[in-house]
Sequence to fold (315 residues):
Amino acid sequence: MTRSPLTVLLAAPRGFCAGVERAIGAVEAARAATDRPVYVRHEIVHNGRVVSELAAKGVVFVDEVDEIPDGAVTIFSAHGVSRAVERQATARGLDVIDATCPLVRRVHVEGRRHAAEGRALVVIGHVGHAEVEGILGRIDGTVHVVGTIAEAAALEPEDAERLAYVTQTTLSVDDTREIIAVLRSRFPAIVGPDVKTICYATQNRQAAVRVLAERAQRIVVCGAPNSSNATRLRELATVLGRPARMIADAAELDEGFVADVTTIGLTAGASAPEVLVRETLERLRGWREVVVEEITTTVETTRFAPVDLGALAGR
Ligand code: SF4
Fold:
């Protein structure tokens, strides 16, 4: 039987960002540098495939520092941690390697600067996300978390004249602009970075989905359900009128989703490894005569210096 053709518009950029590469590199480098057990607090990046591959090499993932045995190397994930977590590790005498993404660190610095200048801080982000927890745990003073336009409209700060905001790095650019607009209209004195603290990788992957959606009838996003930036890609595709599926594994894609269409878009969140994209293409080839067309919207050149492994020196 002749298989019908399917054009796959492959987003570029897609998949791993510089912060994720750096964090995974830190875990690999720590493994190579020591015979001691290596523990990571929280998933190093939000992707089960990445975590299970590292776990298969002996890396142990835990939720809290108190689960880490004395003498183990302790790695903090790309999402950052609160100062309480940092202090807990220091008090335990654990050797810490901090893989917090430099762009998350920049949000910490900006938030602390506003707090030091006497402003209450509005964190635009999702309650419970590891990055937001880390930001909240680094600010002295009043902090409000706002995740929606409704929450921005309901915010009642003590002093509307002394307010600032920062954003989580992996938000929807469009939603964040709307939230900022509400905050600015209600509190004209508020200061903040517009959407600049949404990171380059998040912005670029969303921009690429916009271009895919001009031609693709459906969009597939490789990414884990707990990945904020991958979830935003699926939501954006839907907002643009393109039915979208987010898959953590190629096996989750069902043939029915791509039946009766001739063109789909394929992308991957910033913590999704390229192997997921390759396996998704293989799965599609099992059903259809696939033609891949890579759509390059931006060439990313951002790279970060490797994580400091100084904590392991001389041990
Ligand atoms: Fe850093 Fe952005 Fe990647 Fe998060 S998505 S790790 S903020 S570069």
